[in-house]
Amino acid sequence: MLMLRRGLSLKVFRKRAEEACPREKAKQIMRPDDANVAGNVHGGTILKMIEEAGAIISTRHCNSQNGERCVAALARVERTDFLSPMCIGEVAHVSAEITYTSKHSVEVQVHVMSENILTGTKKLTNKATLWYVPLSLKDVDKVLEVPPVVYSRQEQEEEGRKRYEAQKLERMETKWRNGDIVQPGLNPEPNTVGYSQSSLIHLVGPSDCTLHGFVHGGVTMKLMDEVAGIVAARHCKTNIVTASVDAINFHDKIRKGYVITISGRMTFTSNKSMEIEVLVDADPVVDNSQKRYRAASAFFTYVSLSQEGRSLPVPQLMPETEDEKKRFEEGKGRYLQMKAKRQGQAEPQP
């Protein structure tokens, strides 16, 4: 935090504080069309609000200096946990803060609080970290440089650089292993991968896009959550809610007029959770010069709930093919890794 030093006016102090840690805040009341039949707000709705806040603050920062105008495009969302459900009638408080900038990217950390306006009770529902890159308005394939931020401590810049290098490496690894597609099965049995897998085909229209003709990251994430939710509901046939989302990687832009296919398949189940892989493929149907390509990918984790909101056992997935068994073991590894991490965080500190 910046400290108000003697001889430094309050006006100058506030200006420097804003430069050091730009922030954005927004509020929105949750309505029936934001929620499922049980009254819980869709995870995709919350992800869309998170991305909108991140896009606003990063675009504003990237245009804070004289130079070529740009728009910030979402490149990656780190793992996001849904810490507490949000319900119809509650107010979502979304706050975003820029925490690191590299030469060509911006890290934004977003917090979401839910408020019961009848009782005044507030609770933290989500924390997310997003990465954006500034694209030129004259040429959206051109990435511009990001204005630097002023760090109050040298350690903040060093910690941010480590996060930047880690996400960059993981994003490249994910892109290279994303070549497979979801194939439909014939007469699949219950509890198999083919039984619950789902796909959604969507024509990208103007309302899905920025003013510059490519899709909002939040729109894509909302569609991904809808497909993952259908897969989870088909598998367990109960009310389901989003528990967490592993890193969402955006490999390439999706333009207006493209057709996107969002495919989801079950990869792993534990006793009380299920992991769904979601793939987004873009098809430039009216552009013969470009082929269909992988635009985004992520793993969503869901839990099954009773009508009273209690956790229910999840039917165990029955992988059949060698690829399904391999994905099951990979999902099990991610599950055990996160379980160990949560247990380590829960241990009392000496």
UniProtKB/TrEMBL annotation:
It comes from the Eukaryota. Its main location: cytoplasm. Transmembrane segments: none annotated. The keyword Flavoprotein does not apply. Its EC number is 3.1.2.2. GO terms for cellular component: cytosol. CDD domains: BFIT_BACH (cd03442). GO terms for biological process: acyl-CoA metabolic process; fatty acid catabolic process. This is palmitoyl-CoA hydrolase. The lineage of its organism: Eukaryota, Metazoa, Chordata, Craniata, Vertebrata.
